[in-house]
Amino acid sequence: xxxxxxxxxxxxxxxxxxxxxxxxxxxxxxxxxxxxxxxxxxxxxxxxxxxxxxxxxxxxxxxxxxxxxxxxxxxxxxxxxxxxxxxxxxxxxxxxxxxxxxxxxxxxxxxxxxxxxxx
Length: 119
Hints:
The protein is mostly helical. It has one domain: Up-down Bundle (de novo design (two linked rop proteins)). The protein is built from four helices and no strands. α1 runs antiparallel to α4 and α2 packs antiparallel against α3.
């Protein structure tokens, strides 16, 4: 079953979140290149990537599993954003924007999962 992930609100939000995380972490300290900055970026990219990979799977169960991973990665971004703010790597406005984007993304993924389970 071919699914067009590009038409999903969850994918669009996840894609925008990944870009926002890259922009927000551009000025992290150099010593965090492979630390928190790298982890935050990997988690953010994992969200849309898992939506895309899940959409390419044949079975509904596999699709749902990848959406679960995408949802979990969004929650990871949420925590890492809070940590980055507490460590002084993100200013409150930047962290607030990322947290808001992450919440909207996670909610869209959750709604998609719920709708697929009902069908």
